[in-house]
Amino acid sequence: MPAGDHDRLCAHCGAPFEPAQEYCLECGRRLGHAGTLTGRLGGAWRERFGWYPGDWIWPVLVGLVIAVAGSVAAVAVASGSSSGKPLVATHAGVPREPVTPPVTATVALPTVPRGTPTTSGPPPTPSTPPPAQSSKPAAGSLTTWPANRAGYTVVVESIPTRAGRELAVARARSALRAGLADVGVLDSGRYSSLHPGYWVVFSGIYATPGAAASAQADAAAKGFAAAYSRQITR
After folding, report:
1. Strand positions, DSSP E, the chain
2. In Å, what is the CA distance from 232 to each residue of 33, 98, 173, 192, 217?
3. For residue 209, which of 140, 160, 150 has the smallest C-alpha distance?
4. Confidence band, pLDDT 50/70/90 cuts, at residue 208
5. Which of 54, 102, 200, 209 could pair with 186 in a Cys bridge, judged by C-beta atoms 3.0 to 4.6 Å apart?
6. How many domains is the chain partitioned into structurally?
C-alpha cells in the first residue's frame, strides 16, 4: 500500500474509500474521523493484528489502565497503614518505612567508694547436701515393686480382687511375721506376666530365676508349701 493510503481505510471494517467519500460502502459508518487520532490508531491496530474490534476499545483500555494504577496505589497505602509505621516517599515515588537507628542500652556500673577494703580469702564452703534417703522399707512394712522393673519373685498367695486389698495386706503381714523377706502386694492387672483379677502376695525381688527358686524352697520350709516362683514383667 502506498504511503498515506492507510488513512483511506475505514476505521471500523477496513474497507478502502475515496478521498471525497463521506460514508463507508461496506459498513455504512461515517468516514469523517478517518484522519483523526482514533482513526489512525484503528488503522495501525488493523495493520498489526489484521482485525479491529471498534473505537470502543480505546476508552476501555484507558479506563483499565487507570483502574490498575489506582489498585496499585491503594495496596501500597494499605500496606503502609497495616505496618503501623509512617511511610516516607523515596525519589522513585514508592513509599517505604523509615529506617530507625538501633537503640544502644547504657548500663550504669556501680561505683566503689575510695578506701573501701576488698574481701580476700578462701571461697565459702558449699553447704553439705542432705543424706540420701534409703529406698529399703522400714522393718515391719511391706515392699513395693519397683516401677518399670522386670524380675522374678515368689508368689505366696493370689487373692481375687473382689475379696479386697485389705485381705491381701493382712496375708502379706502374716508372711512377713513368718520370716519371709521383702513381702508386698501386687495388682496382677498391671503386669503382663500375671493373670488379671488378683491381689498377688509376693516375697522377694530377684534378677534370676535360680535365685527365685531358692527363695521358694525357703518359703516352703517356713510353712508356705503352695508358694511358687514367677517372672514379673510390665
Report:
1. 88-89, 95-96, 151-160, 183-187, 198-206, 228-232
2. 105, 72, 21, 8, 19
3. 150
4. very high
5. 200
6. 3
If asked whether residues 160 and 179 sit together in one domain, one would say yes
Average pLDDT over residues 221-234: 90
Cut 0.85: pTM above it: no
Query: Do the domain assignments include residue 185?
Result: yes
Instruction: Report if residue 143 sits inside a domain.
Output: no
CA nearest to 182, candidates 133, 224, 215: 215
Give a yes or no: residue 166 inside a domain.
yes
Same structural domain, 51 and 69: no
Q: pLDDT tens for residues 99-133?
A: 556 555 555 565 655 655 555 556 666 555 544 44
Evaluate whether residue 117 is within a structural domain: no
Q: How many CA atoms lie within 13 A of 209 on its CB side?
A: 4
The pLDDT score that the predictor gives to residue 133 is 45
CATH number at residue 217: 3.30.70
Residue that is written with C-alpha cell 474509500 in the block: 17
Instruction: Report, as an integer, the average pLDDT of 75-87.
Output: 64
197-206 pLDDT, tens digit per residue, is: 999 999 999 9
73 is in which domain, residue-wise? 62-97
